[in-house]
Design a protein that fits this description.
The chain is α/β, with parallel strands linked by helices and 396 residues long. It contains 16 helices and 14 strands. It has a seven-stranded mixed β-sheet with strand order 1-7-6-5-2-3-4, sandwiched between helices. A five-stranded parallel β-sheet has the order 8-14-13-9-10, sandwiched between helices. A two-stranded antiparallel ribbon has the order 11-12. Helix 5 runs antiparallel to helix 8, helix 10 crosses helix 12 and helix 12 crosses helix 13.
């Protein structure tokens, strides 16, 4: 047995040394790439026949998967892809047959000559330029090469090959032909604009989700301006993807209403929400939870708890109707922090329990995974560390 590490011993050299005009080549993998086949094309042209079993189901998402891997992007930028694709297509039409199937999730390259059969185990890699050794790998490569003395691996390949009658040569060639197409300047421009402004389609998908959950039928949604609706959609997407976000609209642009809409979204999902606000702003939040004629959102029946920033420094006593001694701090799915810049300082050196530490340890990190929405027109007051300390609530 021989170990190929693609450093001092390259797989492409090992293959080239043993393939001749009497060789049969058998490959089993999830996918191969255009550039890998081109790297070995002169050697493969010598082979008698080449059979490839592909376990990957071909679908519409395979536009580029068989053209290049993530590691081969640099090869795709050399502007010779069309030539290489045509060469590989010619090889396939001449002596390569593809079928759909696999050898028990084992990626193998088997070369059968008259005197012996050599097997290369590629798993977990597939047949690309990295596995061949033409491009460097970010992780160590260990490809085992050994003589298949009793033709066990060759027999295994033949068994799966004969069980599969689905020839996919036409499908593979159609995928590779995408690399030979020429594009006009106009089509490239339109594609670029579409990619740059793809957020519009994301908003459309998010809009459908809000409709399904019921947020668009609420009173709070009807009161928002379009720019506020965009902010709500963006905030929900970032909270779901990253675990939190900061709404940093300027003073007077309605951050509170935007936050209430986000709260209602999670309320409709039966999530527990806590609002932390400066004491002077507490009434601005509690009014929307009360059966009160001043509550213009009464029909939304909003449900969330409200505490003061200073309550995080207290162990006991009352805050409104809430007993601080018995609060289950770790049970909140979402925490909304109004004027979050008040938590811009993280006194790590302090041994006492600060508001920052209480919020981080007892609310954010405790028990369930807590998402965070912060509101501040001035998230950075003096230095960028102000922002870092607030983002720490999102990243825990």
């Amino acid at each position: 047995m021989k170990i190929i590490n693609n450093q001092d011993i390259l797989l492409i050299d090992e293959i080239s040394n043993i393939i001749d005009d009497k060789s049969n080549v058998y490959l089993s993998c999830n996918y191969f790439t255009l550039f890998a086949f081109f790297e070995i094309i002169e050697t493969f042209k010598l082979a008698k026949q080449i059979k490839v079993l592909l376990s990957h189901e071909l679908n519409e998402e395979d536009d580029f998967k068989f053209l290049y891997s993530k590691s081969e992007i640099i090869l795709n930028q050399l502007l010779d892809r069309k030539y290489k694709a045509n060469q590989v297509i010619g090889l396939i039409e001449d002596k390569v047959e593809f079928r759909s199937g696999s050898t028990g999730n084992q990626n193998l390259l088997i070369i059968q000559n008259e005197d012996k059969t050599t097997c290369f185990t590629l798993t977990p890699m597939d047949f690309d330029s990295v596995s061949l050794g033409k491009l460097k790998s970010n992780i160590p490569v260990f490809i085992n090469s050994f003589e298949d003395i009793n033709n066990q691996y060759h027999g295994l390949f033949n068994q799966f090959w004969n069980n599969s009658t689905k020839n996919i040569n036409v499908n593979i060639i159609q995928l590779l032909e995408k690399a030979t197409k020429s594009y006009t300047a106009e089509s490239i421009y339109k594609y670029s604009v579409k990619e740059i402004f793809s957020y519009s389609s994301i908003n459309e998908r998010a809009d459908e989700k809000l409709e399904k959950i019921g947020l668009k039928s609420t009173k709070i949604w009807s009161l928002l301006y379009n720019f506020q609706k965009d902010a709500v959609i963006g905030a929900i997407e970032k909270i779901e993807k990253f675990g939190g976000c900061i709404i940093a609209d300027s003073v007077g642009l309605g951050k509170t209403f935007e936050a209430v809409a986000v709260i209602k979204y999670y309320d409709l999902l039966n999530k527990n929400v806590l609002v932390l606000a400066p004491k002077k702003l507490r009434d601005n939040w509690t009014i929307y939870t009360l059966n009160d004629r001043r509550n213009i959102l009464s029909q939304d029946r909003l449900r969330y708890d409200v505490l003061n920033h200073t309550d995080l420094s207290r162990e006991r006593g009352k805050s409104g109707d809430m007993d601080l001694e018995t609060i289950n701090w770790g049970a909140y799915d979402l925490v909304v922090i109004d004027e979050s810049h008040n938590f811009r300082n993280n006194p790590n050196t302090s041994e006492r329990m600060t508001r920052y530490k209480r919020l981080m340890n007892d609310v954010i990190k405790s028990s369930i995974r807590t998402k965070v929405l912060m509101l501040s027109a001035t998230p950075v007051n003096n230095k960028m560390n102000d922002l870092k300390n607030q983002i720490a609530f999102i990243s825990e």
